[in-house]
Amino acid sequence: xxxxxxxxTKTAKRPTRPNGQWKVDGPAPLNHNEEFKAESDPLEVRDxxxxxxxxxGFDSIPGDDLHGRFRWWGLYTQRKxxxxxxxxxxxxxxxxxxxxxxxxxxxDGGALSTEQLRTIAGISTxxxxxxxxxxxxxxxxxHWIEVEAVPEIWRRLEAVGLSTTxxxxxxxxxxxxxPVAGVAKDELIDPTPVIEEIQQRFIxxxxxxxxxxxxxxxxxxxxxxDVVHEINDVSFVGVEHPERGIGxxxxxGGALSTxxxxxxxxxxxxxAEEAPEVWHxxxxxxxxxxxxxxxxxxxxxxxxxxxxxxxxxxxxxxEYLGYRLTDGDAPPTPAELGLAERGDHVGVHExxxxxxxxxxxxxxxxxxxxxxxxxxDVAEAHGSGRVRLTPLQKLLxxxxxxxxxxxxxxxxxxxxxxxxxxxxxxNTIACTGIEYCKLAIVExxxxxxxxITQLEERLGDLKDLKPLTLHVNGCxxxxxxxxxxxxxxxxxxxxxxxxxxxxGFQVHLGGGLASVERDDAGLGxxxxxxxxxxxxxxxxxxxxxxxxxxxxxGTETFAQWAHRxxxxxxx
Length: 571
Prior knowledge:
The chain has helices spanning 22-25, 32-39, 45-56, 63-66, 93-96, 114-127, 150-159, 192-202, 275-289, 300-307, 309-321, 334-337, 369-381, 405-414, 423-427, 445-458, 537-551, 558-564, and strands at 75-79, 97-105, 111-113, 133-134, 140-145, 172-177, 215-220, 234-241, 245-252, 264-270, 326-327, 347-350, 356-360, 386-389, 395-400, 428-430, 470-473, 487-495, 501-509, 525-533. By secondary structure, the protein is an alpha+beta fold. Helix 6 runs antiparallel to helix 13 (369-381) and helix 9 packs across helix 11. The model is unreliable at 1-12 (pLDDT under 50).
């Protein structure tokens, strides 16, 4: 028999699927998110909210506006009460959501006047059932907002210079800024002019309102590195150049979530005058070259991982800036400088003008409209008209005369805002959790507050315990930065001792960002099978902290110990 089959040939290389990079693949939408953004500028939904939805109510809102474009104006539907975490991944959005919204007030640099604070407080009490949370991105989030109230809320915010513009969505989100910008004695450079120029020139620009996904910015001139610069898409960190003087070191491509990646230095120094244009160039690279086909690959970190820093810088300089950036060295870390405290600015600190700022810790960022109004009154009663929010869910009162410091601290304490908090009250943060968030699996705020109370009672005898961080997140997305905490807790359902499925957490140990205790950022360690129930957080943290206290070697930090300890010591 004659074999008539064709001779074997080399397997043809399968064509690479397009990633949706506009400058490579063209602008044709490759998924529904890209389709609705292409169909209508998401910023234009404001007109429909004001003309139609606020008058006709929640049921008049079509899906692409409700679940998509509303985010461009800081609006997310919140979770319907009573839906347990086991249903988070199985129900459709309309089954999870209530007819109320979370509203995020954008506060670039975390800077608020007492007038602005009082305005937010009034909106909270009148339209949000008194809800208010300070986030770890220097925003304030309100809940229980009805669409009918949104135009009036915008009117009140904008009357005092605030907005919700691009507080959410595939846009440049709020700009993190040093909470002590312009007041700290040891500040290298005040980032306020750069923050203000970026905000005024580019936020709300339709040309930047369709990015592949969210884009996060951080800018600081303080040596404590107080804006978590390693986990932002672009960061500018104050540094002194030997020839050009004081400016910024540029970092790109950081983010956490389910695929954590730390930002990398471009190796470039930029002046304060150059920084806004460099920021604009980085954002446009993301817009034009970022991956749009798959949402879970659409952050800048994935492009940087593929390109590398050298190519990224070359494209930035040749295609977007038109000039070569000055080479520069990294800023010194807080540990290298020998700073005494982490950069949360809690406590009493002298300003460059001889007055003082006082940093206080609410419990995991949870405040209320009533207390925000009282905070404005208290600040003014002690001579201050300015408050700052921090990237660690804390707040500062600025410009306090020396003889007003202790009376202010006493009044803050009555509001549950402690300027001399316990170690755990100071260093615990938590995301929104299942109370309001449609992505959450477990409750976080009340759970964290209860754990703090337990740990204050149980570990008070450890007088020499060094500060350590506890971050509690309601799902895998790491809004509370679980991978960069000494003890990070990722919400999930777990089995208790009786074999029942209950709310709980996977444990990450020994993560952190550059601080007084470490030169470099590092991710936490996970131990196979190490999970704790939600009502067992206090028990677990007490157990592992006591083991650290007994076992660590001299000056060894908790993170160092956690990474070298046997697994059994961590359980």
